[in-house]
Amino acid sequence: MNTVLLGMFGTQEIIIIAIVVILLFGAKKIPQLMRGMGSGIKEFKDGMKEGETAADTKEQDKIK
Fold first, then answer.
1. What domain range includes position 28?
2. Model's pTM, two decimal places?
3. At what angle do helices 11-25 and 30-63 cross, to 10 degrees?
């Protein structure tokens, strides 16, 4: 993932973004923000899987 970020941004840009994030949220809040973002992504993926399962079920019902 680091190579993807470095491909899009240079090292200086990443450092500047990190400093801005620390200044905006504070060093103590960042772990909480990352946990929240991680759980949100997990819920989104679970919802996508449920949606695919529901869509597959509807398609199978139409075929019958």
1. 2-63
2. 0.53
3. 100
Read off the amino acid at residue 32.
Q
Angle made by CA atoms 59, 61, 64, in degrees to the nearest 5: 115
Q: What are phi and psi of 23, to 5 degrees?
A: -65, -40
pLDDT digit string (tens) for 9-60? 788 888 898 899 889 888 888 889 889 999 999 999 999 988 888 777 766 6
Q: Is 31 helix (H, G, I), strand (E, B) or coil?
A: helix
Which of 16, 45, 19, 22 lies closest to 34 in space, CA to CA? 22
Residue 26, sorted as left (phi over 0), alpha (psi -120 to 50) or beta, turns out to be left
Tally of domains within the chain: 1
